[in-house]
Amino acid sequence: MIKTILITLLLALFGFGLWFWSKTDPQKLDFADRMAFGTAEHHQAPMTNIAYGDDARQKLDIYLPNQNANDASPVLIFFHGGSWRDGEREGYGFLGRAFASRGFVTVIADYRKTPRVRFPAFVEDTAAAIAWVHANIAKHDGDAERIFIMGHSAGAHIAMMTALNPQWLAAQNLTTDVIKGVIGLAGPYDFLPLTSDSSKIALGHWPDLTETQPITFARGDAPPLLLLTGDKDTVVKPRNSKNLSAKIQALGGKQQLQIYPDVDHADIIMAVARPFRQKAPVVADVVRFINAR
Pfam family example for this protein (predicted)? Predict the structure, then answer.
């Protein structure tokens, strides 16, 4: 009997291990967040798989806070990383829960990726997702006049491109004034020459590569920026955030730069999940930035 129980437990553990390691890194992080000890973060059940375009990748999920029905909540739209090639919104429930529980209607938006598409398709998707949210979020108790956008890595690149270069939202009959602030986590903003295979595939075909760089479109009247990075990031070096911060400041724009000590490229997004918040105060810094506006 005991032997049978032990074998059953071992098989169950083996099966769980196979299941767990088949998941993407964000999905593993989301699982760890769900299973973490401590008080759960309260929010309403998310609405998932909402189309903002015709492509299968043009989908978004909405995480709703527990809120006073008389008040519309600020809106945070998040775009995930993955070298313009990988990633999926389904892995980022930990981020949706974190910010919905702090009073924000939180949207996790997916977008088309390489090799199916290349620049500027993913920037066009970013603008389309923002336009959908602006037009529809009031139905979900979100305030369309208080939209903030946020991204990690490649997601920070496309978010920043959309906020700084007015042409992408203009194609959606909007101005960048609809964005009240941009939060970039370890974003590539000034990374010429292209050195990684993923960046060459995503951007290398463009005739003028400076037009793929957010820093090219830095301007004094841009939405306020919060640039968060880690001093141990070797994937997207902190100089990207430092250079954009300096240029926006020189042009008279509003920006804040925070460089976290002993934080690398993965740590900065891990710090949003409950088990890893000791890595960096990312959640607190983002909440403070949004509430100040």
Answer: BD-FAE
